[in-house]
Every structure is written in C-alpha cells, then in structure tokens.
Specification:
The chain is of the alpha/beta class. The chain has 11 helices and 12 strands.
C-alpha cells in the first residue's frame, strides 16, 4: 500500500484520514479572523490548514470576465474583483503558518503561478496543493514538481486523459510523492454529482493515495468516502456561515469540522478486516443468544412438549436448532421451571 509522509504525518490506506481545513477567502480580509480560523481548526482536530496563494493580478486581469451563471454563488461579479476580495495577503502567510505550527498542525497552500511557488519556498512549506482549475497548467505543474515536495492535486473539471497527463508531468519533473483528490468543481456540489465510487478506481489507475476534496454541504459524503478508500479529506472551513465570505455557503463550521474528524476516523476504524466468525470482543455476548429452557416444573418420565419448553434468552441451554428434536422425549430427572435444558435431562437420543 502507498504511504506518503508529510511533516512526519503518514498518509495512506492504513492510516486514519488526513483532514485538511481549507481557509480560502473566509478570513474576510481580517488577519485576526484568519488567525481565529487556524485556532478553531486546531481545536476541532484538523490535521492541516490550507491557504491559497495568489493576487488578483496573478490570477486574472481586470475586465477578463464577469460571472454570468445565474446559479453561481458569485453571479454578476467580475473575476478580478472577486479574487481581490478573496485573496490572502502574502504577508499573512508567515504568521498563519507559525500559528498552525504552535498547534502542531501542518500548514501549506495552493500556489496559482510561479511567483507563488517561489514565495512559498521561502516559507519552506512541506507540501503543495494543486487546485482543480490549475491541474492542466503544465508550466505550474512543472514548477511545483521541481521543488521535489509532496503534491496533493485535485482532479475536478479534468478528463482522465488530462489527469494522466498532469500526473506524468509531475512525476517527470521531480514529484515522488503524490496524492490525488476526487473533486467536483461546483460550489456547492451536490451528493448526486460527487461520485465517490470513483475513488477506488482512481487508486487502481494511478497507484497512489486518493482522497476527496468535498464541496458538498455537511460531512456525509466525506465520511462515506472513507469506506471507499479516501485517505485525505479537504473541506472549506469558516467560523460561521452567517458571517458571510466568498466560500462561506459551502464551508463547515467548527462543530461540523470536529464531527468530520471524529466520524471519519470512526469510519476508517470500522473497516477492519473480513470477519465471519465470533470475535473475541463478542465472547461475553454469547450469553445472550437464545437456548431451550424448561418453562414448567417436570417430573421423571414427563414428556417434553410445546407447553413445557421454550426458546428464550440466555444461551445456557441446548441450542434452538434442537427444539424439534427434543419434543416428545422424556426427562430423566426432576426439573424446575427456569432451568436451561441439557442433554443429560433427556432419557432418549442423548448426544
């Protein structure tokens, strides 16, 4: 099984899921709020906090496009203005990373151009994230791979051929440790278009750990993905959706993130192994299986019948499978009602 190590944390099929809290633009242009998001993510048990490293000018240019999709959370906004609102000032990265380190959390980011990578290298990030919309940006993929750091890449809005090409570019340029995230790049995503059955298929194709970048509401899809082999779960995170923010509508709040951490680990632990016999942990519960009991006082020579024996709990008597066999047989001794029936009580066909 493939295992990736990031800052001494092992990630792979034999380890509990790695939970990433994505801050994105939910800081609402307040450093104090950004620091509070890091604190809250740590308190909830997230293993990592992720930023996005860009400026409006490295992402797009003024006048390039206005979002006209009426279904979009950002309908009517000009792209440059949106990214100007959402970006995380680069001078915030160091204090945010230091705060995460104080909590024992991994901190890293998604770079969106070469200058972002150069900047993040000065902060010695332990891993890079490639966002879905950048997974076909070959020059960026080469730049990220050449750092020789582990890479986590989302696979939204990409065909299998494009994902394959991206993987080859990363590996050919120095990336030795790679994690791919199943991702549906709609905001929010619906459970119906999340398609987590793709996860084991991706693992077979690319022979690397697979996770889920989950844009659905709640934690159901994320927890379910663990049962299909997801080793990493990435969710957008905010202090409160009511506070607003560019990604707040599909972000988890602190109690939800804590539930994700707890329930994803429970899901992982519940996978266990193929087990078709009575487990050691169940031995004491054998007592509560059903068995045959005498339900009326019996004397020597009385005949066992439906009105004087019953199948009840606990399992201290003969197994229920012998019920029809013992009907019509005579008893060899006096038996009080409430006694578990044993073979030694029966005069015929003793075993």
């Amino acid at each position: 099984m493939n295992t990736i190590t990031i800052a001494n944390r092992q990630i792979g099929p034999n380890h509990t899921p790695f939970i990433i809290a994505e801050m994105s633009g939910n800081h609402n242009q307040s450093l104090d709020r950004a620091l509070a998001i890091v604190d809250a993510a740590a308190e909830a048990g997230a293993h990592a906090i992720k930023l996005q490293t860009y400026t409006a000018d490295t992402m797009t240019m003024k006048g390039a496009h206005t979002i006209d999709d009426e279904q979009s959370l950002w309908h009517g906004q000009e792209l440059h203005d949106l990214y100007k609102l959402a970006y995380t000032p680069w001078e915030w990265h160091k204090p945010l990373f230091e705060r995460a380190k104080e909590h024992g959390m991994i901190a890293f980011s998604s770079p969106f151009d070469a200058s972002s990578v150069d900047f993040l290298e000065t902060l010695d990030v332990p891993v890079y994230k490639v966002a879905s919309f950048e997974n076909t940006d070959i020059p960026l993929l080469k730049k990220v791979a050449q750092t020789q750091k582990p890479v986590i890449m989302s696979t939204g809005v990409a065909s299998l051929a494009q994902i394959d090409e991206a993987v080859h570019v990363l590996k050919e340029n120095g990336c030795k440790e790679l994690i791919l995230l199943k991702c549906t790049s709609t905001y929010p995503a619906t459970p119906e278009n999340t398609n987590i059955r793709t996860i084991p298929h991706m693992e077979k194709i690319f022979d690397c750990p697979i996770g889920l970048s989950d844009h659905t509401m709640g934690i159901g899809a994320s927890v379910a993905s663990v049962a299909l082999g997801a080793c990493v779960i990435e969710k957008h995170f905010t202090l409160s959706r009511a506070d607003g923010g560019v990604d707040s509508a599909f972000s988890l709040e602190p109690l939800e993130l804590k539930s994700l951490v707890v329930e994803s680990e429970r899901a992982f632990l519940s996978l266990g192994k193929v087990q078709l016999n009575v487990q050691k942990a169940e031995k004491n519960s054998l007592l509560f299986k059903r068995s045959i009991y005498v339900s009326k006082d019996l004397n020597i020579g009385d005949v066992l019948a439906e009105d004087n024996v019953k199948v009840i709990r606990p399992g201290l008597g003969l197994e229920p499978k012998y019920y029809e066999l013992i009907l019509g047989k005579k008893v060899s001794k006096v038996i009080k009602a409430g006694t578990p029936l044993e073979w030694e009580h029966i005069t015929e066909n003793k075993e």
